[in-house]
Prior knowledge:
The protein is α+β, with helices and mostly antiparallel strands and 145 residues long. The protein has helices spanning 25-46, 50-53, 55-58, 61-79; strands at 2-7, 11-16, 98-103, 108-114, 118-125, 141-144. The strands form 2 sheets. It has a 4-stranded antiparallel beta sheet, with helices on one face.
Amino acid sequence: MHLWLAWYGVFCVHIEASQRPHLTLCERAGMRALIAILLMVGVASAVPAASDAFPRAAADPRAVLRQVERAQAAYRAEHGRYTASLSALRIERARGVDVRIAASGATGYSAVAIADDEECAVYHGRARPPRHWVRAPGRIACRGR
């Protein structure tokens, strides 16, 4: 019987008892390690990328309206009035959220953001509330759909 130690990422024992071709304990351990690594890589590749992992965050109508509020404040400071244009506000359309803005010049604006499961609205200044359930200016109100 021939006995020796080898290194294949783990210590293993090689026992040569016959001359037949066979996998030694070291080769088996190496194969197990290789299979384990391939399985880990396969499982890791099945996990969605960060951009796909949280689609709810991208479809948050409250966050979209907060972005509209900040952009409208900056636009009014620069131009002296509000705008209904998302491109003028430099706001990219959020996936899964439809945004509608009604501007009333220098007196105010209203905005509605609609996602699959929720609708939110806000108005500022002397603009009309965009939905009957929006009660206070400057306060984002939401309700389920």
